[in-house]
Task: inverse folding
């Protein structure tokens, strides 16, 4: 176990509507799955703490998550995951064989498309209040997210996980954006049965239960009637 690891991530309450930072959650899930000892430092987005001089010294782009390991600071989510796999190889989250590792890394980096579409949609919901939400604009942004989900519906129809029979970083990435969309009201059962199975499977993992955002049991309805 290592007590030098500190994860800087936003307070859920300071992120309107989605009440979660999917990239930060992804890193936290990796730390939990690898059973590493770490500390969380929560930052208030509304107070701009992620852009304080102290944080900008760790990451000049002012984004989160940021992981420090003693004197080292790592930012950019996938870079953090790759660092953890290199620095703490016990309980690996990448397959050992070249074929499956190639697939797992491809799927991980491919999930960046899901992130782009998801965060474009989530950001509009986060930044637009109540009656100002334009249903047509939600639908337009949701359409790109649905386009991505169809890829992953196919992939998860091939196996329990994105790259074979074992959990990998790709699954952590997909799950955080998928779970956030479900929190915002996205129905899975009819259109995405494979993703629905994956979502429920992941919800039962100890790492997910331990790190679950402080969401209410009732989902929002922002995405309940999107295209």
Result:
């Amino acid at each position: 176990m290592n007590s030098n690891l500190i994860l800087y991530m936003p307070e859920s309450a300071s992120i309107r509507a989605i009440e979660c930072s999917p990239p930060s959650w992804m890193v936290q899930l990796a730390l939990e799955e690898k059973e590493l000892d770490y500390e969380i430092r929560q930052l208030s987005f509304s107070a701009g703490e992620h852009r304080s001089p102290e944080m900008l010294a760790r990451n000049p782009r002012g984004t989160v998550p940021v992981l420090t390991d003693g004197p080292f600071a790592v930012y950019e989510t996938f870079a953090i995951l790759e660092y953890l796999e290199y620095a703490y190889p016990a309980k690996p989250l990448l397959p050992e064989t070249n074929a499956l590792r190639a697939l797992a890394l491809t799927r991980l980096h491919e999930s960046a498309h899901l992130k782009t579409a998801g965060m474009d949609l989530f950001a509009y919901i986060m930044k637009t209040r109540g009656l100002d939400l334009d249903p047509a604009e939600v639908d337009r942004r949701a359409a790109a997210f649905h386009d991505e989900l169809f890829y992953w519906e196919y992939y998860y129809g091939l196996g329990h996980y994105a790259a074979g029979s074992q959990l990998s970083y790709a699954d952590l990435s997909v799950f955080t954006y998928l779970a956030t969309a479900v929190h915002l009201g996205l129905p899975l059962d009819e259109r995405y049965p494979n993703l629905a199975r994956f979502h429920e499977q992941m919800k039962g993992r100890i790492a997910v239960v331990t790190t679950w955002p402080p969401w209410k049991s009732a989902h929002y309805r922002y995405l309940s009637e999107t295209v």
The longest helix spans residues 98-127. The mean pLDDT is 95.
